[in-house]
């Protein structure tokens, strides 16, 4: 009977194990193998074991400059989405009283996600372009004498696009953490004479650390690997690690792209481990 129950546990875990192996472990293993392959102009994959793909990644100054730009994007987007996500989640959790209204507002937040990422990014062009709505408004108000050129095809536009795409991924885990907070703690803080800001800083923020950490992991991981936003809103004038890998793939340079991808994966894992040191995300799982 005990042996049968042990086999039952293995069988229950089998579907998830197969999904993990087929859709995660196997692709990663293939990328690792390809990263050590050789390549030539007319032969894109030559089975071999060479290290120069990784040597090129680590010896090129362009790699470090690209990573610095991507880290800067991560830091700016993380800070903006954290402020926006925390504020919106706070409003939904503590000021919207009915669950129905909370669901309606969440659905409104997801409306932009009903279209593809490319369409959402292209939608910014008529707004931020030289003859876009923002420039027309600035000219009409007399704020500037000529159209502002850096609104589009710049790092500013890329950050705007990232914030548009990933703020929701910060809102949801923080909102989930806030809904788990015992409301009697807030009443106790108020009864003890704490102001609204002191209650937020000393009670709500510490209890939301797991949600903030999960949201930060989502945002950082996606910004590090994103290349569509940089392509559309950067206009070929902004670099990122994801864009560099996409460019290598477009030139059919699969081994260096695989090596670059594995380095990026290692960097993202290190960042996630660093974020998990600040909070125990298992409380939210």
Automatic annotation (TrEMBL):
Residues 67-275 form the ABC transmembrane type-1 domain. It comes from the Bacteria. Keywords: Cell membrane, Membrane, Transmembrane, Transmembrane helix, Transport. It is a multi-pass membrane protein. The chain crosses the membrane at residues 12-37, 69-92, 104-125, 150-175, 254-276. Belongs to the binding-protein-dependent transport system permease family. CysTW subfamily. This is ABC transporter permease.
């Amino acid at each position: 009977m005990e042996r049968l129950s042990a086999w039952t546990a293995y069988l229950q875990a089998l579907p998830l194990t197969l999904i993990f192996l087929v859709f995660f472990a196997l692709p990663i293993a293939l990328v690792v193998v390809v990263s050590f392959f050789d390549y030539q102009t007319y032969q894109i994959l030559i089975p071999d074991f060479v290290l120069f793909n990784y040597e090129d990644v680590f010896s090129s100054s362009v790699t470090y400059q690209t990573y610095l730009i991507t880290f800067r994007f991560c830091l700016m987007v993380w800070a903006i989405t954290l402020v926006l996500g925390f504020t919106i989640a706070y409003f939904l959790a503590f000021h919207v009283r009915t669950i129905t209204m909370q669901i309606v507002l969440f659905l409104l937040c997801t409306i932009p996600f009903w279209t593809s990422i490319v369409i959402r990014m292209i939608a910014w062009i008529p707004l931020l372009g030289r003859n876009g709505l923002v420039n027309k408004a600035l000219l009409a108000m007399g704020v500037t004498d000529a159209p502002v050129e850096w609104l589009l095809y710049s790092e500013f536009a890329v950050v705007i696009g990232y914030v548009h795409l990933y703020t929701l991924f910060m809102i949801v885990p923080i909102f989930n953490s806030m809904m788990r907070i015992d409301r009697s703690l807030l009443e106790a803080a108020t009864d003890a004479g704490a102001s609204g800001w002191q209650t937020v800083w000393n009670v709500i923020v510490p209890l939301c650390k797991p949600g903030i950490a999960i949201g930060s992991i989502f945002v950082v991981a996606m910004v590090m690997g994103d290349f569509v936003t940089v392509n559309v809103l950067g206009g070929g004038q902004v670099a990122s690690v994801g864009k560099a890998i996409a460019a290598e793939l477009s030139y059919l340079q699969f081994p260096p792209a695989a090596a670059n991808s594995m380095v990026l994966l290692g960097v993202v894992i290190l960042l996630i481990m660093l974020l998990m040191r600040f909070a125990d995300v298992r409380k939210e799982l």
